[in-house]
Amino acid sequence: MHFENTESVKDRSDGKTVIFDVTVFTSLGERINIEIQLINQQNMPERTLYYWSRMFSSSLKSGDSYLDLPPTIIIPILNYPLFSSETERFHTVFHIREDEGGFLWSNLFEIHLIDLSNFMLQ
After folding, report:
1. In the chain, what are the domain boundaries?
2. Given its phi and psi angles, is residue 105 left (phi above 0), alpha (psi -120 to 50 degrees) or beta?
3. Alpha-carbon distance 69 to 45, whole Å?
4. Looking at the predicted structure, is the pLDDT value of residue 111 above 60?
């Protein structure tokens, strides 16, 4: 396991710069980004997808095969509930699945959401 550069270079001059909090490349070939967000800015689902897509799309170089794409995992650690009306769990895992059959589109996409607010004393 090793840590990677946390700044993602813009893919165009007017593009958005992304600075990942912690980025890890595991011995299994997975790319993991851990994002810590203490204040709810009302944009975490979109921000998480954007960060995942930037990390995933930057994992190939010219000439690489799409079969070489690594599993890319984003772990947002939040100090507030993101899906409070859907679940009370502190750890939820997301994948892309087909609506009716529930089968997995790809094993390369994964989000682990950690809600630390469950551990806060009232």
Report:
1. 2-42+63-119
2. alpha
3. 23
4. yes
